[in-house]
Amino acid sequence: xHLGLPLSPLPSRSRASLALGSSRPGRHGTLAGVRRAGLIxxxxxxxxxxxxxATWLVVFRDTAEPVTVDEAVTSFRTDTEHSPxxxxxxxxxxxxxxxxxxxxxxxxTGVTHRYPKRTTITVTASxxxxxxxxxxxxxxxxxxxxxxxxxxxxLASQDERHTFFGRTERTTYTCExxxxxxxxxxxxxxxxxxxxxxxxxxxxxxxxxxxRLRVGEKAVATEHVRRRTTFSGxxxxxxxxxxxxxxxxxxxxxxxxxTRTTNDSPIGDVHYEEQVSLLATSLEPRR
Length: 287
Known about the structure:
The chain is α+β, with helices and mostly antiparallel strands. 17% of the residues lie in helices and 51% in strands. It has two domains: 12-59; 69-280, no CATH class. It has a twelve-stranded antiparallel barrel with strand order 1-3-4-5-6-7-9-10-11-12-13-14. The longest helix is centred in the N-terminal third of the chain and has 33 residues, at 27-59. It is globular.
């Protein structure tokens, strides 16, 4: 195709200047240009990959910062000013627990949160009895609300918060006629019925028996209760929760919790697992 350019041959020096990256005309110059273009393309791809990785780290950054004992005590001093009236059946304050456990999920790239060696349970009065707030990580907590009745203590609700990759999810179970620490003479086996509205937790509770546990330098008489439940609906799976209540105050001296669940997500099933054991270091709360 003629573009109106001169058709006469260029001087040899001018032809040589057209060879890309080489003083020699022809094939070698063309290959040098291809190589240079390839390097530019690889560099551009590298920039995109690095930018994508940086965005991933910012958007899906995961942290697991422990809640310290001092932070829990400070929160207790602040929050109890606005807590509902009425005495707590367990002396109010912050209890420290030796802790061994973790939680993990296979969402996105998957991650495991190792729990600190010491965590706290904050005890405060609630509208119908007592509230126990276990804060293990900033973004990971469980709060149990127990109501006191003539037949013993009942589990009214359980509020869980989990944080992975900067996103916190809250799940609240409300329970009906679900004993957690039955009074003497009450049935030692019972049904468990709790719901989030989109998921149900059902199972059985049982009084295992009485045991003596060492708390610090003291041997403490406890009542061992076990809850075994399964989940259906939006949450599927099972959990076992063992509690050892101080026979006098009702404080959970020891807890062992094992949970494995599956949740639906837009990219498929997401699996979660938690295994943790707690043992009180003292029966005296910090305030």
